[in-house]
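To: structure desk
From: M.T.
Subject: fold request, one chain
Message: Could you run this one when you get a chance? Sequence is below, nothing fancy, just the single chain.
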Amino acid sequence: MIASLAMYDWPGQSTHWDAFWSHIRDALRARNMPAPEHLSRDGNLWDHWQNPDLILGQTCGLPYRQRLHEAVALVGTLDHALPGAPPGHYYSVLVAHRDAPGEVIDFEEKTLAFNDPLSQSGWAAPHAHGLTFNRTLHTGAHRESARAVADGRADIAAIDAETWRLIERYLPEIAEQLRVLAHTDPTPGLPLITAKGRDADAIFAAVQGALTRTDPETLSALHIRGIARIPAAAYLAIPTPPPLSGDVPAA
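Reply: Done. Structure tokens follow.
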């Protein structure tokens, strides 16, 4: 059995995610559903997401609509209470170095640092914002994209707004080197999924019940306000970004 909630599971947040999972686990078991004792933190996320033993996972909107939606069941979407976003939605924060002049459009011909070509927030969102980039730097993680801009290896990055909050909390030395240029439009947030054939409605109810049993300090640390039902069609309707081109070596 696998449970993986890795997308915002930073080292400083792990104890909070463990506490939240313990309540989800107990709520699942109370419904006679199997649930692992602990979250899985080892291995490849794609292996987790596509494993028939997946009880609960968290993926990104772009992998869900491009590769996963026919192979998994959609459970729901955690609501991180982002200002200006509907429940369960999120957006990207477009950042540049604090000393770099100009508005967001002035960075279009410069280098975009991005975490992954299958990232809704890091790759698809800036393109949906009307921007195109001929030069890119593939960093592997949002925090590394922010670091690349702070270090001058890239000029702009699109950071998932919840991850930006974590950068401000845990990596202030990076955040203080950056300035926010703009926010992208909200899109459905990171979907919770389970293996195809499992009872997604019962798992939704278990997560919903766990939220009422998790202490407020834990939910506050995780910025979780609730869980939303967002239909699969809302994820599938988001435009697909152009393929990656013009990548420059990471340094």
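Reply (cont.): The domain at 2-81+188-236 is CATH 3.40.190.10 (D-Maltodextrin-Binding Protein; domain 2). Let me know if you need anything else for the meeting.
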